[in-house]
Amino acid sequence: MKFNKKNIFKVIVILFILTWTLLPIVWIIMNSFKGGADITAYPPRIVFSPTVENYIQAFQGRQFRVRFFNSLFVASFNTLICLIAGTLGAYGFSRFKIKGKKHILFWIISTRMFPPVVASIPFFIIFNRIGLLNTRVSLIIAYISFNLPLVVWLMKGFIDDVPIAIEEAAQIDGANAFQVFFRVTLPLVKPGLAASAILSFIFSWNEFLFALILTSGRQTTLPVNITEYIRWGEGIFWGEISAVAVIILLPILLLSIFVQKPLVEGLSFRGIK
Question: What is the pTM of this model?
Fold first, then answer.
């Protein structure tokens, strides 16, 4: 690459964006390996003696493993349900004539437009009356209400790009409607499935507000666990907070690496050529 003024400007912009994006993550990782004196030192210490004591304290913390399992359980089930229901719904909207389809689709996506905090009190009242308050089921239902519309819209775009002629050819060969859907359409929209799954899992895994309001004690998720390291009369345990934050980050990071190719194709809408 020739280093002219235009390319130098691009490099500077890219470096600025990378620094702006990665610096908080790098700083949290560094703090997770610092001792108490190094974390509170001023000016901040870049060179320090690393320790894993923060991670040991995090794993030995109040019900850490239970809440890690809660986060994994809720995020996984929410993603699975949203993928199944969302893909079927998207296929119906894409392939069948439905009266008022545009209005229904707009109503579906409009549920993503208002702040989640608006729905927190109604959810709390409803779950309290039906006996689901402080359960993992309440979180799964709450997350589905926000992730399902996203999956429907994402998957509809991918299914629209699949030529109907391919499905008609499979039907001529003797395939029924279910065989056409599972053996023809789904394999062609794998990038969309990957993108929808990753986004649904991330939104559920990182969600804090509903987990804080709808659950307590052993039923809360890992993001809520961070608040327990802010203790009145004792102080803020930044090392343990950073360690838990890194632990929360790792599953998303590893999952994104393993499905990076279909995820990029899905988010750039290049899955169907």
Answer: 0.82
